[in-house]
Specification:
The protein is α/β, with parallel strands linked by helices. It has 2 domains: 216 residues, Spore Coat Polysaccharide Biosynthesis Protein SpsA, Chain A, CATH 3.90.550.10; 100 residues, no CATH class. Helix content is 43%, strand content 15%. Strand 1, helix 1 and strand 2 form a beta-alpha-beta unit. The chain is globular and about 65 Å long. This is Nucleotide-diphospho-sugar transferase domain-containing protein.
């Protein structure tokens, strides 16, 4: 498979590149990418900036940013998705296409924060030696799960068994060299084979890449980055606040300002968490989880970014409540007093009304 013809305009080959793939017009992904880029720039030492390239169908969104955009037409995006409707195939195709543009490529998911100089990550990439976000699990630990049964039959054909040490990596970051065309071709071939009759899981792309790297040295990038894929809602709220406050037009000040944004979701202090645990000592199961999330949101640390996303804790509680039957929901929310008797109150009295209004509105909207 050749990707050399995907460029509508030539791009000069470079030594190192950070590569992003962004398509569509959703604000959250554009903000993720821009903030990821700011964190990378904020950690660069001695002005050794890697080339930053964005493969996108909307190059206008990054005008004025210190990046090169490579336009992707809808025809290319359609071809990259393949015939089986698996949209993460585009990621493997983007990495393959990027190999033609640099000696070393560090592909970065947009929901990734750099916590160290990206040049340190590039030093870990060598021919035949790869860098991935992190090791996630051994095949033996997931192969019996129902959603993996179909994929397991596909892997059996290639001799993968629960006891032969097949490791699966998260591909939120992927470091490869210009020589790795065959590795990506194999990954894409496997994606097409394993999604031919539909698919039960959405991580086939990274499993295929892990399989292609099986038996080769693979390093982890977790000491250089933080991939917040499991905490997106919290970071989306903080990034929306950041860009609403400072704007999306690039300037050097943004690099410094990005340091003010927390790199973790808004956990209460250790002391506050201990107090909440004590308050909920007589609760168990789902009610305990709901109480914890409600109180965590109320007890989030002070600061504009934490305040901007404390309601995401309440959203976690809402999702749990929506799993309950209507009688149980009504018992919790239809209370004569302002706050449910089953739960300890938040320390901030004003949050009693705010939280209950939030819960009732969300549950009512869900029907």
């Amino acid at each position: 498979m050749s990707f050399s013809d995907f460029l509508e305009t030539p791009v000069k080959k470079t030594r190192h590149q950070l590569l992003y793939l962004i398509y569509g017009d959703q604000d959250v992904y554009r903000r993720e990418a821009k903030f990821s880029i700011l964190t990378a720039l904020s950690h660069v030492k001695n002005a050794k900036f890697p080339r930053i390239r964005i493969l996108t169908d909307r190059p206008q969104d990054y005008a004025g940013w210190p990046v090169e955009t490579v336009f992707l037409s809808q025809d290319i995006l359609t071809r990259w998705q393949g015939e089986n409707g698996y949209h993460h195939r585009r990621k493997a195709c983007a990495i393959a296409a990027g190999l033609t543009l640099a000696e070393k490529t560090l592909f970065v998911d947009t929901d990734t924060l750099f916590t160290s100089d990206p040049n340190r990550a590039f030093r870990q990439i060598k021919p035949g030696q790869y860098l991935m976000d992190r090791f996630e699990y051994d095949w033996q630990h997931v192969c019996e799960r129902p959603e993996y049964q179909k994929l397991g039959k596909c892997l059996d054909v290639y001799g993968v068994t629960p006891d032969n040490g097949f490791k699966l990596y998260n591909s939120g970051l992927c470091g490869v060299t210009q020589r790795d065309g065959p590795l990506l071709d194999e990954s894409i071939r496997l994606i097409d084979e394993w999604t031919r009759d539909g698919f039960d899981i959405h991580t086939i792309e990274q499993i295929a890449l892990s399989f292609a790297m099986h038996g080769k040295p693979v390093g982890e990038a977790k000491k250089y980055i933080y991939h917040y894929f499991a905490e997106k809602r919290f970071f989306h709220a903080m990034l929306a606040y950041f860009f609403d406050r400072h704007g999306e037009q690039f300037n050097l000040e943004l690099i410094e300002l990005c340091r003010d944004v927390p790199r973790i979701k808004p956990f209460p202090s250790s002391w506050q968490r201990l107090k909440i645990k004590w308050k909920l000592r007589n609760q168990s199961g789902a009610l305990r989880k709901v109480g914890r999330d409600l109180l965590y949101g109320s007890a989030a640390p002070e600061g504009p970014y934490y305040s901007a996303c404390r309601h995401e804790w309440w959203e976690c509680a809402t999702r749990e409540i929506l799993r309950w039957d209507q009688s149980r929901q009504k018992k919790l929310l239809s209370t004569r007093s302002l706050w449910p008797e089953q739960l300890p109150k938040p320390e901030k009295p004003e949050d009693e009304r705010v939280i209950m209004q939030y819960l009732k509105k969300r549950v009512a909207a869900a029907g």
